[in-house]
Amino acid sequence: MYRMVTTNLSLSAPLVTAGISSIVSALRKTTPGGKSSTKTVPVKQSKTMSIGVVLERLNAEFPDVTVSKIRFLESEGLITPERTASGYRRFTESDVERLRYILVTQRDNYLPLKVIREQLEAMDNGYVTAIVGGSSSEPLVSPEKFQAPAMTRLTDSDVAEKAGVSVDLIADLVKARLIKPDAAGFFTNDDVAIANTAANLKTLGFDLRSLKSLGNAATRQADLISQVASPIAQGKSDVARQQAEEMAQQMCSLVVSMHASLVKNATREQLGY
Q1: Domain 146-271 carries which CATH code?
Q2: What is the average pLDDT value for the chain, to the nearest integer?
Q3: Long-range pairs for 194-197 at CB < 8 Å and ≥24 separation?
Q4: What angle do helix axes 208-233 and 189-203 make, rounded to 10 degrees?
Q5: Neighbours of 81 (CB within 10 A)
Q6: Is 117 helix (H, G, I), strand (E, B) or coil?
Q7: Given 3.20.20.140, 1.10.1660.10, 2.40.50.180, 3.40.50.800, which CATH number is that of 51-133?
Q8: N or C, fewer C-beta in 10 Å, the chain?
Q9: Which GO terms describe its molecular function (predicted)?
């Protein structure tokens, strides 16, 4: 099945949105003098694919992508796959390229979904360049660093061995609530990182009380993030929790990056360098 598409595009406005918006199916043809001409060309109907096939195609470049993530992006209005009569999602090649653009922009530019949506809308409306939001500076820590840790079953001895510290220090950190075992008494790799960092700070003069104050500061910052993300997680949407997790990861990245800059500036001011 073929359908007819009429194009009338000049050289001064290249199809920068090809592969992202529906304009990808238009084919440009110009005269030798550089002037645009109108030509009717046949365009083959795009094949569609299931969400599982889309996931397979994206996983090599984006291993953290899940079906829930794709559904979440759809709920946010960033992609609009077709639906079959029975309700199944069907994606075109253009949808896949649009997803790839979203994921690359999130990963490399750390832009919030609101800004990415504005960029996509600009492309869909035929702008040559996307809208660039905010500063070009990147957070010191990417949002991906704040994903839930992989399931582990580390004992206190395991944590001590991996972190290169004593079991006594692990006990002190648990007492200070800097690390916390789960209901079964096991720890995560994040606890290993905390223990290792705590040991390094102790060698530089930090005592347990000082370390505990760092933990209290982190808890206060987490409370601020939870105040924003928790109401979203309690929504009735099927992707409410996914949406809250995405937002929390972005906020963690920005809060930690801002905190690092504030600490750096305050230290320079206090020490006069």
Answers
A1: 1.10.1660.10
A2: 79
A3: 195/159, 195/160, 195/163, 195/165, 195/169, 195/170, 196/163, 196/164, 196/165
A4: 150
A5: 21
A6: helix
A7: 1.10.1660.10
A8: N
A9: DNA binding; DNA-binding transcription factor activity
Q: What is the pLDDT of residues 1-39, one digit of tens each?
A: 434 333 333 333 333 334 444 333 333 333 444 444 444
Q: Which residues of 194-227 are buried (b: 16+ CB within 10 A; e: fewer)?
A: bbeebbeebeeeeeeeebbebbeeeeebeeebee
- What are the start and end residues of each CATH 1.10.1660.10 domain in the chain? 51-133, 146-271
What pLDDT is stored for residue 203 in this prediction?
A: 92
- Is the overall model pTM greater than 0.85, yes or no? no
SS3 readout for 190-235: HHHHHHHHHHHHHHCCCCHHHHHHHHHHHHHHHHHHHHHHHHHHCC
| Residue showing tokens 């360098």 | 273
Map residue 87 onto helix, strand or coil: coil
pLDDT tens string 63-105: 888 898 899 899 888 999 999 999 899 999 999 999 999 998 8
Residue type, 210: S
Q: How far apart are CA 123 and CA 137, in angstroms?
A: 23
User: H helices of 60-92, where?
Assistant: 67-75
Residue 34 tokens, joined: 């550089």
